[in-house]
Amino acid sequence: MANAxxxxxxxxxxxxxxxxxxxxxxxSDVGIELLLVHRPAHRDWTFPKGKLDPGETLRRCARREVExxxxxxxxxxxRLPLVTYRDAQRNRKAVVYWTMTVxxxxxxxxxxxxxxxxxxxxxxxxxxxxxRDVDLLDEIAAAIASPTVRT
Length: 151
Hints:
Layout: H1 4-11, E1 17-28, E2 31-39, E3 44-46, E4 49-51, H2 58-70, E5 72-79, E6 83-86, E7 92-105, E8 115-120, H3 121-127, H4 131-145
Parallel strand pairs: 1-7
Antiparallel strand pairs: 1-2, 1-4, 2-3, 2-8, 5-7, 6-7
């Protein structure tokens, strides 16, 4: 299989805006927890993500955006299914997410994200602002359960 950072955009010429992000997770006493970000400008809770820079791979974009928004340096795991939608400008947007685990760092509020929080799967389902993120939860749970995912 070709590198996902190269072939995905070529396979989807209808996409006008590419972005990447991470579904950061950990195991705790309550089970699996997901890290969500709160963006005050949008008044939403979502997964950290951002637009692809020219010449940047999707995986590198995902790691950069997660670090910029959360302060956490993360390792990438399983690539999740492509999420597509129309953005606020009505452009066709595609987001590629990877499962991620924290290697280090700490959160400092910034101009894009004023808070981060860990949510168990059901609390995440109730807190996520967009149905497209909620729809991704089943894929996330399956990917995390995969024996190839680092724990």
